[in-house]
Amino acid sequence: MPERPGPATRARRVCAVLRTLRKANRLTLHQVAIALGVSVTKVQRMETGRRGLHVDDVNALLTLYQVPAQQRAELLAQVGAAANPGWWQAPGSRLPADLRQLIGLEDEAAVVRDYELAMVPSLLQTAEYARSALGGMDHRLHEPDLGRQVAATMTRQMVLARPTPPNLHCVVEESALQRPIGGPGVLARQLQALCVLAERPNVTLRVLPGSRGAHPGLRGSMTILEFADAPTLVCVPTAGTHTFLQTAAEVDRAREAWAVLEHLALPPAESAHLLGGYAGELARAS
């Protein structure tokens, strides 16, 4: 049985419908803003999902677009359902807003394509590696916030073990496997864990050798999130936060870059052999 769409997917589906309805009515964002007495920015945010949807606002748009009663009720029901929080949104989680959004999207994705330039993908990190990485990237992050983010990283990984998990495809730079985050011992155990995780049927791990030279990934890490019934999104880490890209041109560029990276990377079997070699060397040295 397919899983029911989660809150983030439902909200994005409503946003896409609102955008389609406006265009079908041949209205510009400016015209809609004037009709509702709101800013153009607010209408844009409602169509992109960058801010939460509110039933009253959506109802006003549906009235303007003369949406039939039954369709209106269905859409408003989805808006209400999208307000139900996941564990990452619970009071007291104190996780950054962009991280909460990413976790919600990962939870609903059918396919996750993750390219990492500098470290092991978050969905495959061990707890000790995650703690060292998070603390090293932000020296202002102290307990208990550091502990919360490490716990969130570990809880995120449960998505890979659920009855219908997403297919995770990872391409990791070889240099990321050599960076001693947490020290040689931590890295050795992390690489050993990668060898085990790569054997899961829903996980494909490829290593991109440093000998390949310049390629699109040098612009930075990225994650492509694909959904069964919602548009694809691209998540890009920028200046300590996450930026979400969703226009057709942005998604196409990301897919083209991913195709190049996947082509340049080693096949899974060769990648596993390389990982095992690095893990063995580190284990003997530590």
Question: What's the structural domain tally?
Answer: 2
Measured on Cα atoms, how large is the radius of gyration? Answer: 21 Å
- Report on the biggest sheet: 6 strands, mixed
Give the count of helical stretches: 11
Mean pLDDT: 86
Structure, explained:
There is one protein chain. Strands 3-2-1-4-5-6 form a six-stranded mixed β-sheet, with helices on both faces. A hairpin with a 6-residue loop joins strand 4 and strand 5. The N terminus is likely disordered. It has 286 residues and is of the alpha/beta class. Helices cover 50% and strands 12% of the residues. The chain folds into two domains: 76 residues, lambda repressor-like DNA-binding domains (434 Repressor (Amino-terminal Domain), Orthogonal Bundle), CATH 1.10.260; 192 residues, Endonuclease, Chain A (2-Layer Sandwich). It starts with 6 loop residues before the first helix and ends with a helix. It is elongated and about 70 Å long. Helix 7 crosses helix 8. It has eleven helices and six strands.
Features:
12% strand; single chain; 2 domains; 286 residues; 11 helices; alpha/beta; 434 Repressor (Amino-terminal Domain); six-stranded mixed β-sheet; Endonuclease, Chain A; elongated; disordered N terminus
Summarize the structure.
The protein has about 290 residues and is of the alpha/beta class. Helices cover about 50% and strands about 10% of the residues. It has a 6-stranded mixed β-sheet, with helices on both faces.
